Amino acid sequence: MLLAxxxxxxxxxxxxxxxxxxxxxxxxxxxxxxxxxxxxxxxxLAAEIIFDRGLGDMFVVRxxxxxIGPEVLxxxxxxxxxxxxxxxxxxxxxxxxxxxAAREAVxxxxxxxxxxxxxxxxxxxxxxxxxxxxxxxxRDFITEQIRHxxxxxxxxxxxxxxxVQAGETAVVGLVYRLVDGSAELVTRNGVDAAGAxxxxxxxxxx
Length: 206
Known about the structure:
Helices cover 51% and strands 16% of the residues. It is α/β, with parallel strands linked by helices.
């Protein structure tokens, strides 16, 4: 559903589902989203727009550089354990400011003031891993940060990891291209649901 919506968005033919007054009224008593989306706070990454979805479809959590803290973990766990979302999506994108700042910090020893420094420091392990692997392209650093975030979610949240092991939830990573608006699968965990996402991605690119 997310990939299909993204294809409509890229083609300039969005359907804007679940965005009318009837949907709003139906959701007033409660929500049942089909996915938790944990993405970067970048203003160009509005999830409901780029995936052509609407009210009640996604439980969205966003931080700069999609860095993880207790509030993020609690929000993701709420989506999985309370709202029963079968899919958790980590959404990153090219030209990410947080990743760029972390790369600069590693290369030049610079830092930022306030809590922005904390964001940069949480991205630095991904930058160091990408450099150690010999990567030089922006996309490789972004992909490493997405994979790192997926791994951290599963490592730090017992609720999420148990749901994945039980085949109840899958966790996938998507990278978004700002220029053409396309989203591409870069990593997945959880055989059944993630496999279905992979099949859809393969069909879309065929």
